[in-house]
Amino acid sequence: MRLALREAWRGLGTTSPNPMVGAVIMAEEKVLARGHHAVAGGPHAEVAALNHLPSPDQARGATLYVTLEPCSTHGRTPPCTEAIIEAGFARVVYGATDPNPQHQGGAKKILVQAGISVATGVLAEKCAALNHHWNHRMKTGIPWVIAKCGMSLDGRIAAPGRRWITSEASRHHAMLFRRRVDAILVGGNTVRCDNPRLTIRGLRGSNELAPKLTNYGTDPFAFVQPWRVIWTRSKENIPKECHLLTDEYPDKTIILENCTLREGLQNLAARGISSVLIEGGGITLGKAFEEGLVDEVRFYIAPIILGGGTLAISSNEVMSRIQSINSPSVRHLGPDLLLAGLVAK
């Protein structure tokens, strides 16, 4: 199962809206083949591993290890349970169960009825942690929400005449993190004032995070451009010449208009988006915290005091409860600090 986990990481940044999954085929204590889910619409991990066998007959009587419960319903591809039964496996071991209550446990029933021995829960926590964004969407109907901003010591994210608050090291680190989310969301005012691109760029040649990512796949910089989401009262308020509507990725831009932030996030979840990085502005971040929608924070803090300017979290309402961060981590990025952690629920 540890080999299957390692294999699953090879799909980092490319499998959305599907989860990362790895599979290993073994017989007589020897690894015969490995496979991972690489891209939505492509072979699932179980089928990818079968395709890597020197001969299909080698699966007969073998054991399949897979990080997630095999799918048992038709989607873009046929159910993996059918492929497993047809291949003739004697035993299937999977780590995490499917979080979707409509499918949970379905694979085990089907495989046992077909005479295949099934074991579950092996390294279950590690296997589930692979896809905590996807699990969250399956269970709650809204994406995992990450609040991100670059701010001064006095909590400002913008000041007149100043383009950047944080250092180049922080901005580069934040750019690398974008490859781990499905969508980046900003408010309409941010689009009007800053005209952001919200793309992943400038990663090649990086030496900040790339060495740590090389164990996850054949290409440490593989990614799919995230969705760019504008939350606004009306799309008529968005400049038609802005980057998000005129660059090379206009089909990756979603406009959420005349809805609450929660309703907008539910809309995104229905589109298969499992994780949303809210990058601004202060009013949008304020609404996210007011409504208790934030699951994780990533605050890049520069050692400067600006005064005036725009608050990182702008809210006219008193929070219904104090929102604290569980076991926050702090690391240096050039002169800045990155404070990250999960919001206590």
Structure description:
- This protein is 26% helix and 25% strand.
- The chain is built from twelve helices and 15 strands.
- The strands form three sheets. Strands 10-9-8-11-6-12-15-14 form an eight-stranded mixed sheet. It has a five-stranded mixed sheet with strand order 2-1-3-4-5.
- Residues 205-218 have low confidence and may be disordered.
Number of helices: 12
The 3D shape can be described as elongated
Query: Approximately how much helix is present in the residues?
Result: 25-40%
Query: In percent, how much strand structure appears in the residues?
Result: 25-35%
SSE run: HEEHEHEHEHHEEHEHHEHEHEHEEEE
Using only C-alpha atoms, the radius of gyration works out to 22 Å
Strand order of the largest sheet: 10-9-8-11-6-12-15-14
Find the structural class using helix and strand composition.
alpha/beta
How far apart the termini lie comes to 31 Å
Low-confidence stretches: 205-218
Characteristic terms for this protein:
single chain, 345 residues, alpha/beta, elongated
Structure described in brief:
The chain has helices spanning 2-8, 45-51, 80-87, 106-113, 124-129, 132-140, 168-178, 188-194, 210-213, 243-246, 261-270, 282-290, and strands at residues 22-27, 30-36, 63-68, 91-96, 117-120, 144-151, 156-158, 183-187, 227-232, 253-257, 275-280, 296-301, 310-311, 325-333, 336-343. The protein is of the alpha/beta class and 345 residues long.
